Predict the 3D structure of the following.
Amino acid sequence: MSELINTVADKAATISENNAVIAENEQKVYDAGYAKGYPVGHAQGEADGFAKGYEQGELDGWADGYSEGWSEGSSYGYSEGYANASRETADNFWGSIQDNGNRTNYTYAFAYWVDANFIPAYPIRPTSSGHMFMGAQITEIPDGGRWDFSQSTAMTYVFSSCSIQRVVPSISTVSASDLSALFGWNSAIKEIGEIVLREDGSQKVTYMFDNCSNLEVVNFRGKFGQNISFAQSTKLDHNSIASIVDALLGTASGKTLTLSRTAVNNAFDGGSVGSEWLNLIATKSNWTITLV
Amino acid sequence: MRTSIKAKEGYVLTNGEIYGVEVFLAEGVSAESFHEITREEYEAILKYEEEQIRPPLERR
């Protein structure tokens, strides 16, 4: 019996040793297979993953690029199309108003114009411009080399009773004999770049600046030869008053310049009794100068 | 130095054509030709003259 037990024990030990060997061999086989399979599997996985990612990336990139391109092109095309259409519309409009640049009679042309903006497409060279901006709500006559009044023979009430605050370009009045109310009752006007008068002082200037209560700056070339009044222009500055006095015709007789006493007192050191003012008007002793 | 004349406070000087509270006379213009009117009278004259010359703001 004990011999049998010993034999069974021996056999069990052998089986156990064999199992250990088997396990060890199995591990070796596994390791060998893993070592071989991993790189192959990895390479394949990488290839497949790349292909899949590339394909998806291509799809996404196309979608994004398309959207952005469409949006950009749409926006750009719209802007350019709109601008072209606007230009064409504006050209058609001003072409009609200004007879494609050939218009010369501007009498009442922009009277009661309701838009503050005013940018004509063609130069304005009137031969007649009476009441041209009367009652208009335009706020500025800008420069830009588009204005030439030198041929206008009618210039009464051109800038009368309107909202124009600044007239930038030089306004030549030399062809007009009558400048009555040129800026009359324009209580908005603040600055007038330059008015060119005739040198002989022969122009009628009645009410030329009547009620220009906000006028601050004005310059003149040429001469006044008739009674001229700036009675309501209480804000005229020093240089403007000097320009007005300088524009008084030296050979006129019995003529009167009327100014605002407030303007003179504010513009000159010592006001109307100061030497600066008295020296200025001493140069035009042939004119009565009255302050109201 | 030219002759100048001044109106009393609240008055305006005139010779019928020229109006002012302070008048610097041209050579040959006499101060005696001027008299005083009230400020209100002066402004009434201005208003009347404006009504005669200023065109109504009506659309044509």
Notes: The helical segments of chain B are 39-53.
